[in-house]
């Protein structure tokens, strides 16, 4: 497995913290793309996609306003997490991406807790768009497998949604 480093350094996370959705933001549903939901974050002026599964996992994927960084949020229903920074690993297309996640216990509603990874690796985005699944926390007892069907179309719709919000 090739090891690639997520650009998830603390300065990047700090600089773009204002783009990450939180449960106090005004968020509206924009449209559905397969099992992905495209959301308008009216508070932050950007859009993101999410997908939940029957096992109680929620995934959020979005881009920062300048499109230089993307983020992946992984949440578990009923999880009890401490705020802070944790190591995270994601496998997509046989590539292992490692970095740090910022645990944000208030990052999703309805009893979900988890964290975000901010990345500036374009290969990760390409891998996500081309593959059928993503594995988060491989080799851990709380490993999560995320179905990526229709992700490419959902990312496109999120970009269009963000352009609309920004008046572009």
How would you describe what is shown here?
The chain is of the alpha+beta class. Helices cover 18% and strands 44% of the residues. The protein is built from three helices and eleven strands; from the N terminus they run βαββββββββαββα. The protein has helices at residues 10-15, 122-130, 151-166; strands spanning 2-5, 27-33, 36-41, 46-52, 57-63, 70-77, 84-92, 95-104, 112-119, 133-136, 144-147. Strands 1, 2, 3, 4, 5, 6, 7, 8, 9, 10 and 11 form an eleven-stranded mixed sheet that branches. The longest helix is centred in the last third of the chain and has 16 residues, at 151-166.
Question: Gist?
Answer:
The chain is an alpha+beta fold and 168 residues long. The chain is 18% helix and 44% strand.
Task: Record keyword descriptors for this entry.
168 residues; alpha+beta; eleven-stranded mixed sheet; 3 helices; 18% helix; disordered N terminus
Biggest sheet record: 11 strands, mixed
Q: Radius of gyration from the CA trace? A: 15 Å
How many individual helices? 3
- The string of secondary-structure elements, in order, is EHEEEEEEEEHEEH
Low-pLDDT runs of 5+ residues are 1-16
């Amino acid at each position: 497995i090739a090891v690639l480093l997520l650009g998830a350094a603390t300065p990047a996370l700090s600089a773009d913290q204002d783009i990450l959705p939180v449960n106090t933001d005004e968020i509206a549903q924009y449209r559905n793309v397969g099992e992905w939901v495209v959301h308008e974050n009216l508070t932050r002026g950007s859009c993101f996609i999410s997908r939940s599964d029957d096992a109680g996992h929620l995934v959020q994927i979005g881009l920062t306003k300048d499109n230089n960084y993307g983020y992946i949020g992984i949440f578990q229903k009923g999880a009890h997490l401490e705020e802070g920074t944790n190591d995270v690993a994601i496998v997509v297309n046989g590539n292992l991406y490692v970095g740090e996640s910022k645990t944000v216990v208030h990052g999703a509603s309805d009893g979900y807790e988890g964290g975000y990874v901010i990345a500036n690796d374009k290969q990760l985005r390409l891998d996500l768009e081309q593959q059928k699944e993503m594995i988060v926390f491989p080799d851990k007892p709380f490993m999560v497998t995320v179905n990526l069907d229709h992700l490419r179309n959902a990312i496109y719709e999120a970009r269009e949604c963000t352009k609309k919000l920004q008046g572009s």
